C-alpha cells in the first residue's frame, strides 16, 4: 500500500530548530527535533506505523483483526489513528491517572481504551495486555520487546538528524521510556560516526515524569542495550518541569515534561563541553498536558 498521499505519509521529516535563548555559549549549538509536528502529535507516530505495517507484512494481523497494546499515552494515540486507517481494531490499556486529553484523543480515533489502577502503573497495564492476548486471541504488538519499535528510528529519525546537521552532530539527547528512540538513533548515528555521544534522560529516584521511566529489572525493554547509551543523566521532577516551562516561554516550543527532561540533560552537557552540536528530542506537544499541573 502506498502512503505518500495519506496522513501516514506525513509522519517524519520533522523540523530541527536551533535553541537561541536557552543557551549562549560560543562554539556550542543546541538543536531541537520537533516530534510534536508528526500528525499524531508525537515521536511515537514513527514506531507505531512501523510496528503495525511490519506486522501486516508478516501476516501477524489482517484487516478486521484486533491489536492490543499497553501505553502511557503517546504510543496509544499513534496506534489508534494508524490502525483505523489500515482497517484494524485497536484495544489500548493505560493507567487511570493518564491525562484526560490522551484518553479522549484515543477514543476519538476509534480505539477501545481500558484503564488500569494507577497504583500498578504501566506495569499493570502491560500485564493486562498479555492477559487479553492469551484469553481473547488479540495480537500484541508489545512495543517494549518489538524490534520494529527501535528500527523505525534507525530508518527515519537517525538519518534525518544526520542529514539536517550535515553530519556535524556531536551529542544526541533523548528521554528514555520504551528506549526505542534512543536505541534506534544511537544505532544509526554510531554507524556514521562512532564518536557521537548518546545521552539518555531518566527520572531521579522518586521522580514521576510522564514519558520517562526507570524500569524495575523484570520490565526493562528487551531490546534495550545499555552499551548504546554513553551517558545517563538523572532528572528530577522540578528540573524537568522548569525546563519545560522555559522551553515554552523562551523558545516558543510548547512540549510535554519528558521533553523538558531531555533538554535539561542537553543543557547540562552544553555546560561541560567547549564546542559541539547537540540535538535533543522534543517528544510531543504541550497541549496534551493542559489538564495536568505541568503549566500551573
UniProtKB/TrEMBL annotation:
Keywords: Amino-acid biosynthesis, Cysteine biosynthesis, Pyridoxal phosphate, Transferase. One of its GO terms (molecular function) is cysteine synthase activity. InterPro entries: Cys_synth, Cys_Synth/Cystath_Beta-Synth, CysM, P-phosphate_BS, TrpB-like_PALP, TrpB-like_PALP_sf. Residues 9-284 form the Tryptophan synthase beta chain-like PALP domain. It catalyses: O-acetyl-L-serine + hydrogen sulfide = L-cysteine + acetate. NCBIfam families: cysKM, cysM, PRK11761.1. This is Cysteine synthase. It comes from Allotamlana fucoidanivorans.
Amino acid at each position: 500500500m502506498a502512503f505518500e498521499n495519506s496522513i501516514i505519509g506525513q509522519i517524519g521529516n520533522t523540523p530541527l530548530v536551533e535553541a537561541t535563548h536557552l543557551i549562549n555559549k560560543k562554539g556550542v549549538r543546541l538543536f531541537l527535533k520537533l516530534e510534536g509536528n508528526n500528525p499524531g502529535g508525537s515521536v511515537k507516530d514513527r514506531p507505531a506505523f512501523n510496528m503495525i505495517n511490519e506486522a501486516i507484512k508478516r501476516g501477524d494481523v489482517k484487516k478486521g483483526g484486533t491489536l492490543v497494546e499497553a501505553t502511557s499515552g503517546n504510543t496509544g494515540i499513534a496506534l489508534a489513528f494508524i490502525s483505523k486507517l489500515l482497517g484494524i481494531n485497536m484495544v489500548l490499556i493505560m493507567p487511570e491517572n493518564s491525562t484526560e486529553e490522551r484518553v479522549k484523543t484515543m477514543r476519538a480515533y476509534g480505539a477501545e481504551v481500558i484503564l488500569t489502577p494507577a497504583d500498578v502503573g504501566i506495569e499493570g497495564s502491560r500485564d493486562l495486555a498479555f492477559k487479553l492476548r492469551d484469553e481473547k486471541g488479540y495480537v500484541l504488538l508489545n512495543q517494549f520487546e518489538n524490534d520494529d519499535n527501535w528500527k523505525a528510528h534507525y530508518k527515519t529519525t537517525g538519518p534525518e538528524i544526520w542529514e539536517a546537521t550535515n553530519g556535524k552532530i556531536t551529542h544526541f539527547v533523548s528521554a528514555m521510556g520504551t528506549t526505542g528512540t534512543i536505541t534506534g538513533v544511537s544505532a544509526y548515528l554510531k554507524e556514521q560516526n562512532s564518536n557521537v555521544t548518546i545521552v539518555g534522560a531518566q527520572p531521579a529516584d522518586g521522580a514521576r515524569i510522564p514519558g520517562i521511566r526507570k524500569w524495575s529489572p523484570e520490565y526493562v525493554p528487551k531490546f534495550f542495550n545499555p552499551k548504546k547509551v554513553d551517558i545517563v543523566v538523572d532528572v528530577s521532577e522540578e528540573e524537568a518541569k522548569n525546563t519545560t516551562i522555559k522551553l515554552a516561554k523562551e523558545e516558543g516550543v510548547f512540549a510535554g515534561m519528558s521533553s523538558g527532561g531531555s533538554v535539561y540533560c542537553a543543557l547540562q552537557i552544553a555546560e561541560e563541553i567547549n564546542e559541539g552540536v547537540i540535538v535533543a528530542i522534543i517528544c510531543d506537544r504541550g497541549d496534551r498536558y493542559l489538564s495536568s499541573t505541568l503549566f500551573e
